[in-house]
Amino acid sequence: MKYDPIKRSLGIVFNKNPFLRKLFYGLLDLLLLRTWHIKKAIRVWKKEHRNEANILDAGSGFGQYSYCLSKQSKNWNILGVDVKTEQIEDCNQFFAQINKSEKVKFEFADLTKFSKTEEYDLILSVDVMEHILEDVVVFKNFHKSLKNGGLVLISTPSDQGGSDVHDEDDHSFIDEHVRDGYNIIEIENKLKEAGFSRVEANYSYGAPGKISWKLSMKFPILLLNASKLFFIILPLYYIIAYPVSFILNYFDVNLKHKTGTGLIVKAYK
Q1: CATH number of the domain at 4-206+257-268, please?
Q2: Which of 29, 58, 124, 219 has the fewest CB neighbours in a 10 Å radius?
Q3: pLDDT tens, 73-110?
Q4: What is the pTM of this model?
């Protein structure tokens, strides 16, 4: 299943001007359940960090999480890093256009080699670690880069069907993953091995979220892979499907799940 080509196609459409880019970010915030979970965690973290803070968006991609963070406080300094140079250049250009480049910057970095001693109050890693084989190396770099009392906030697929893999014969829905998902004990142990004093891992994409993900992401991407003509009827599809997904997302974020296809992990230094 090809996910990156769909992302690139959407990027071309929505990168034509800042208004469309902001609209794109808004749509991602509505559609992506992981964003609901991340924004909830950031709201909790913000209560104790209203003043100046240094934040690393580790694997910044399209820059949607850096944009979200930039709206939370004018006192936060945000650095987004990624291995895709075209996205780095694109994000720097966009944030300059909206007059946020003084506080939000982007640069190329390989997370297996990137670290800055006790620089950051928060490190955000959203759907990144499933792409990196040397995960413990990255976790050690995160630990070194955090200030004492700092937090790493991670969203990643779990081994309970993450990446839409349910048995040995299944293949990941997203081709670029090097692992289909983390066992909850495994990621806790790896983060503790990297030096983190306290780790909290909880399932996301429980029963409500799994249905929502299929409605809002999987089915549209399958259809777009089949034919780009589906772009034409995509708005009509979401008018019908999104109200259901919205309700399911609400319950997924506000309920505890015994299992789920995603993990939200907090690791404290």
Answers
A1: 3.40.50.150
A2: 219
A3: 999 999 999 999 989 999 999 999 999 999 999 999 99
A4: 0.90
